[in-house]
Amino acid sequence: MLTAKNTQKGVNRLKNVLLSDKFTNPERLNEVIKSDILYVLKNYMDIDTDDIKLNFTLNDDGNYQLRLSASCKRLKLLQAIL
Amino acid sequence: MARKIVLTSGKGGVGKTTICANLGATLASKGLRVALLDIDIGLNNLDVVMGVENKVVYDIVDVISGKCRAKQALIQDYKYPSLYVMPSAHTYLKESITGEHIKIVVDNLAETFDYVLIDCPAGIDLGFHRAVSAASEAIVVTTPHISAIRDADKVFTILRSYNLISTSLVINRVRGDLILEKEMLSVDDISKLLKEKLVGTIPEDDEISTMILEGGTISRISECRMAFDMLANNIHFGTDLIYDCTHKYKGIMGGLRRTLKRKI
């Protein structure tokens, strides 16, 4: 029976498992998030890739703390945002 | 100077040894000089898969401990003369073999071969690290099952802390019929989630079982030969062609094949 449901369930399970594996080690998650954010931001500005700092830590109360700081040289044409 | 590639997976039983043997054979069939190394100390099986278990005189531990020269431990394949196998020790030894030892053997072989393929043991402990530290490139093998993919993902993360020239992915034991029935993750699903360079997919083929039973590598007329050929070309020439495992199961004949495979 051709249902997309089976593989979709499987893909979601796998996605959750892969993400939760990364979450148990916040240091490694750094790289993943950094590259994703960089991908979005570079549509709007010229970012110095060496200067981007991402701090991702796990607090004692179990919550995650994310701190991002980046310096950019110039903004790109605002037409991209419209 | 050879390309030193380690075949690893994390999860056991996904086909590292089989792929190591057949990829090596396919590269050798193109005239390249290929050396296969079994680094699974104590659980050697590359020699059995290749069908050369009766020709083993020296193994990698003999080479490391200086009992023989590397050349003496290499067994030439009977089908492809430019393909050589260095078997692993058949007992787990108390002497400590380090990554440095393996690296020296690999670098030594790299001088006279075009490719050194290192068959890594399963897991991510000492055996794994020993094998990876001797290589400059890595191929992670997985099957389309969530358990194997999860382990492969962890292995990729660990490999990032090594200074490897490249890491790539091979998906083995792909059931084209199950993918079309939506009962197995597709190659597309997997490569999107793992976000690593896919260099090959190998279909599930009964031919492989027969091959291991008899000992030796796939013959020139095998079905999965094309898949291994595309994999070898991707690795050697840098092409980007992936074997379509669902092709056989599409269309009228394909539908018939799928029906026959389903439980009646």
Structure, explained:
- Chain A is of the alpha+beta class and 82 residues long.
- Chain A has helices at 5-23, 26-41, and strands at 45-47, 53-58, 64-69, 72-75.
- Chain A has one domain (5-80).
- Chain A is built from 2 helices and 4 strands.
- Chain A has a two-stranded antiparallel ribbon. A two-stranded antiparallel ribbon of chain A has the order 2-3.
- In chain A, a hairpin with a 5-residue loop joins strand 2 and strand 3.
- With 264 residues, chain B is α/β, with parallel strands linked by helices.
- Chain B has one domain: P-loop containing nucleotide triphosphate hydrolases (Rossmann fold, 3-Layer(aba) Sandwich), CATH 3.40.50.
- Chain B is built from 12 helices and 8 strands.
- Chain B has helices at residues 16-29, 46-50, 60-64, 70-73, 99-110, 126-133, 146-159, 176-180, 187-194, 206-214, 225-237, 251-261, and strands at residues 3-8, 34-38, 75-76, 83-86, 115-119, 137-142, 166-174, 197-203.
- Chain B has an 8-stranded mixed sheet with strand order 3-4-2-5-1-6-7-8, sandwiched between helices.
- In chain B, helix 7 links the parallel strand 6 and strand 7 (166-174).
- In chain B, helix 1 crosses helix 11 (225-237) and helix 5 (99-110) packs parallel to helix 6.
- The longest helix of chain B is centred in the N-terminal third of the chain and has 14 residues, at 16-29.
- The radius of gyration of chain B is 18 Å and the shape is globular.
- Classes of the chains: A alpha+beta (82), B alpha/beta (264).
- Chain A binds chain B through residues 2-7, 10-11, 13-15, 17-18, 21-22, 28, 31, and chain B through 146, 149-150, 153-154, 157, 160, 181-186, 189, 193.
